[in-house]
Design brief:
The chain is an alpha+beta fold. It has one domain. Helix content is about 25%, strand content about 40%. The chain has a five-stranded antiparallel β-sheet. A two-stranded antiparallel sheet has the order 2-3. A hairpin with a 2-residue loop joins strand 5 and strand 6.
Length: about 110
């Protein structure tokens, strides 16, 4: 199981690097990787205290909750609209981690 998760994670990282995508399912932090589905405690351990936090309430038409597929958490389409966003500066970029029910649902890298 770990081998399949590692292979999937590697594929996501390579795809994000090849396409220059801003939002992704993972973020390298030193020699560790933050992934969608990790806990808020893991985010704090890897990135520290956020420089800014914002809370989002539910939006019209948003479906609520997350679904599990193959042991991986996939946030519902409206999850980012109703989650809590933690903002960081990391390696010259702004990182916004969205948490829903205490779990990472989205990782967004933005230029300053």
């Amino acid at each position: 199981m770990h081998r399949h998760r590692l292979a999937g994670l590697l594929a996501c990282i390579l795809f994000a690097c090849a396409t220059g995508a801003a939002a992704s399912d993972s973020l390298r932090v030193g020699n560790r990787v933050l992934v969608v589905g990790d806990s808020a405690a893991t985010v704090s351990t890897l990135l520290g205290k956020p420089m800014h936090k914002s809370h989002r309430s539910g939006s019209r038409g948003a479906s609520h909750g997350s679904s599990r597929r193959g042991g991986r958490v996939r946030a519902s389409p409206g999850a980012a609209a109703r989650g809590e966003q933690w903002q960081y500066r990391h390696n010259g970029r702004v990182i916004v981690v969205t948490l829903v029910d205490g779990l990472v649902s989205d990782i967004d890298e933005r230029s300053r």
